[in-house]
Amino acid sequence: MTSILILNGPNLNLLGTRQPEVYGNTTLGDIEAMCRARAEEMGLALAFEQSNSEGVLIDMIHAARDTHDGIILNAGAYTHTSVALMDAISSTELPVIELHLSNIHAREEFRHRSYIARVAVGVICGFGAAGYPLAMDALATHLSDGS
Ligand code: DQA
């Protein structure tokens, strides 16, 4: 069975109460439930994780090499700063879809740069919580036919 990891970075544990005008009212628990339902429909095994720590995220990416076929990563603010996360992705050679709830290109200049995008298969942003199932479809398609 194809297995995917959805990894959420810093401050995403606060979804639902954090800047709802930017990120919406959906909690990370709601998003996890939505992803689990979608994974069942799609016949995918799913791990869903969150950490505020860059090192823990890197360790989870390394561990994914042995347990998962691909990763959906919302790295939060580390997207814009972390060469270390980019290198971790390159090291695992697993396909990664970069994901953001907000449209980072319509926001502040410092959010326009992504270190993750350089090593990602593709990027989904701006669709709020609905981006998670979109990213699952994109990753499953990529894993099945390389597109
Ligand atoms: C985010 C966008 C990032 O710029 C921000 O730092 C986040 C959330 C998003 O999902 O829209 O923490 O990744």
Write the SSE topology.
Blueprint: E1 3-8, H1 20-23, H2 28-42, E2 45-50, H3 54-67, E3 70-74, H4 83-92, E4 96-100, E5 122-125, H5 131-145
Parallel strand pairs: 1-2, 1-3, 3-4, 4-5
The structure holds 1,3,4-trihydroxy-5-OXO-cyclohexanecarboxylic acid (DQA).
1,3,4-trihydroxy-5-OXO-cyclohexanecarboxylic acid binds next to loops.
Describe the structure.
By secondary structure, this protein is α/β, with parallel strands linked by helices. The protein is 39% helix and 18% strand. α4 links the parallel β3 (70-74) and β4. Bound molecules: 1,3,4-trihydroxy-5-OXO-cyclohexanecarboxylic acid. Residues 11, 74, 76-77, 79, 100-102, 104, 111 line the site of 1,3,4-trihydroxy-5-OXO-cyclohexanecarboxylic acid.
Percent of residues in helices comes to 25-40%
Report the CATH architecture: 3-Layer(aba) Sandwich
CATH class bucket: Alpha Beta
Which ions, cofactors or small ligands are bound in this entry? Answer: 1,3,4-trihydroxy-5-OXO-cyclohexanecarboxylic acid
Q: For the CA atoms, what is the radius of gyration?
A: 14 Å
Q: How many structural domains? A: 1
Q: Tell me the distance between the termini.
A: 19 Å
- What characteristic shape results from the CA principal axes? globular
Would you summarize the structure shown here?
With 147 residues, this protein is of the alpha/beta class. The site of 1,3,4-trihydroxy-5-OXO-cyclohexanecarboxylic acid has 10 residues, from loops. The site of 1,3,4-trihydroxy-5-OXO-cyclohexanecarboxylic acid (DQA) has 10 residues, from loops.
